[in-house]
Amino acid sequence: MNPKTAPETLDQLRGILGPHGLISSSEELRTYECDGLTNFRVIPSAVVLPDSTEQVQAVVRVCHRERIPFVARGSGTGLSGGALPVAGGIVICLARMKRILEVDLPNARVVVEPGVINLDVTGRVASANYFYAPDPSSQSVCSIGGNVAENSGGAHCLKYGFTTTHVLGLEVVLPDGSLVNFGGLTLDTPGYDLAGVFVGSEGTLGIATKITLRIVKRPECVRTLLAAFHSPTEAGSAVSGIIAAGMLPAAIEMMDNLAIQAAEAAVHANYPDCGGLLLVELDGPVAEVDALMAHVDEICRQHGAWEIRVAQSEEERALVWKGRKAAFAAMGRISPNYIVQDGVIPRTSLPQILSEIDQLSTETGLRVANVFHAGDGNLHPLVLYDRRIAGQEKAAERLSERILELCIEKGGSITGEHGVGEEKKHMMSKMFAEPDLDTMQRVRCAFDPFQLSNPTKVFPRTRLCGEKPGEYVPHPLELAGVAERF
Amino acid sequence: MSVGNQFGATLVEPVDENETAAILRDANETGRAVIPTGGGTKLDWGNPPRRADVMLSTRHLNRVLEHAWADLTVTVEAGCTVAELQSTLAQHGQRLAIDPLWPERATIGGILATNDSGSLRLGYGALRDLIIGITLVLADGTIAKSGGKVVKNVAGYDLPKLATGGFGTLGVITRAVFRLHPLPRNTRTLTIAVDGADAMQRVILAILNAQLAPAAVQARNGNVDILLEGTLDGIAAQQAALKEFGEVREGSLEVWKAREELWGEGTIVKFTILPSRIAAASAFFSRFVIQATGIGYARFDADLARLRTAMEQDGGSLVILGRTKLDAWGSPGDALPLMRAVKSQFDPKGTLNPGRFVGGI
What we know:
The complex is a heterodimer of chains A (486) and B (361). Chain A has 486 residues and is of the alpha+beta class.
């Protein structure tokens, strides 16, 4: 790999982007050395800030010609190191491409550039009673391009689906600089579902420069219920009861006592002080929601809820959600450092994994706060530690990895919405067999035979694309010293 | 239609994934083309294969492996029929929320490969949104899993989506995992009679724009059908709200078979359009079913090439579900070279369904 970008390459990039579109001074580059996962840091050799698809294409063509790896970046809020720069590589920051290009309300479609902020899509269509459904907790700052890369979820994906459910079409700059379109304005366009495989590919297949999104009509009403239980296990059994009764709430969230304390300290959400808090949101036509809400209330009481509140106004509802969405950041109030994990389990394994996490916490002496998307089994255990105490960081890392192993053992996943990125790529071999990973890499080879687009992420090792699975044959590029194995 | 040797191929019926892999590996090494098949209901979809030596039936891979009802997921083998799966799921009050063609014969592998979801897509999403895991056997015999058994999972590439609608050209689907939905507490089918194409479109857009939650909406000649699901109170309130758009009649679930009833004589086409172009598209056909998501089916025996041009110019597409002189697919757009590259990574020798898919893939 080029340790540093050659001066003539920088000149070319400057020529493409103008003087204000290129960052190459070391102090300014530092801004881009990490994303939301700050324990991995790499200073890129340059950052470019394109303003148009043409500029992205021109930059990628330079990278392709010079075999310079590049990493696309939106707002940098990712939690798995997906936008972590690659040593000797370029960061292509899409924050300036933030135009909403088209709003088509009759067909419920919006076309945006990748730098558009998630919440701004809803902002643009809210007056017509539409919204953009995927709602990661960072939605007031994260970008649609980043959401596409990570297939971001959020609390409401239990009912509404993930980013991939809402992306109809993509304009993509491929790693050789060519421009292609996946999907389109209508459903089921002929050919492979390349939009389906691109969304969630964590920037390893190219850069989306235009995204056609589906928006959703706002439901007639939204009701949010808070139920206080003595323990997360009781709350978990209430969740099972709700699902077994045939209901599909818009969201079911759970917090344990430590998470409640942190959220209270940070935003005063006025949560009941309890062992396990359930937040259930139903939406839809009023008559339907009222009938179901009565049922949810009854099920919660049957499973031991000792206090139930229903948010009485939009303000109360907003406050309830503010506490939940601030839960990660709130950990700073009760612990100097913390690691957020994103494992998934079959929902019925919840009581078991909670007791196992509890036991691990006792064994290591490290506190673990739990925030879950309980409806779909997506856990966000927060392992609390103090970096200043020797050995604690390592112990915390080991503990959070152990939690992911437990998720795998239960038939779950190492990530529900944060992505594999840099952080969890070594866990992929624990979740998938070699032929599974090799098959995924075939997709990579079709899109990016020179492995330039975010090359070191997601997979435990890169597969050189001329390579036959199962046997090691040095790739011509490797022999020529152009590429190396990671 | 029965599973037959329509292409003069040798029929093989593996009993498990390993045998499937062995058959594929052997065919791949000896240069024989393999046509995967399930219930054989859609063998005339896509272009005729360039070569057909082995017809690989998933008939014996027909078990429901695990219905994790408390987790609302199911793992099922590809050769299981849709009806068989649904009856197993119904024992626990659940379903896979799709209504594809010919459920008694169509298999899970077949509906996935051909991407046939049905009208419930409006309320519950398409197969691509419901599939959460897949096992594929590639042409070289590699058995590859992707996705998993949990409804939320972003680890690795989403190969379930890549294989869905891929017409078996990337690998043979042997197993799939789906997220499930509870069976609806109650259902009611309502129909609003409409006078002319403009009125039909107006009613559909008005329903989509209202704050209702229909599970399905379809237009057929002179009628708009609405499927409501949920509590009796919820259904009653929505039914009352629908009166604003026209005279509402209660109907039977039979109207949702209208798509299937198009088959018979003549050529059937599938077209995709924006919902706002439903009126314009319907003008081409004497008999049609158009789902509110913008997917339509119709009989059409006039100039298919002209029809395709009109649909494509309107931002849509036209796929012919049957054999004519014309290419079945139409333009896959500027991503065709990339689609070819994907195919050549998965199946470099063109063993699987050669020529059946877009652009000669």
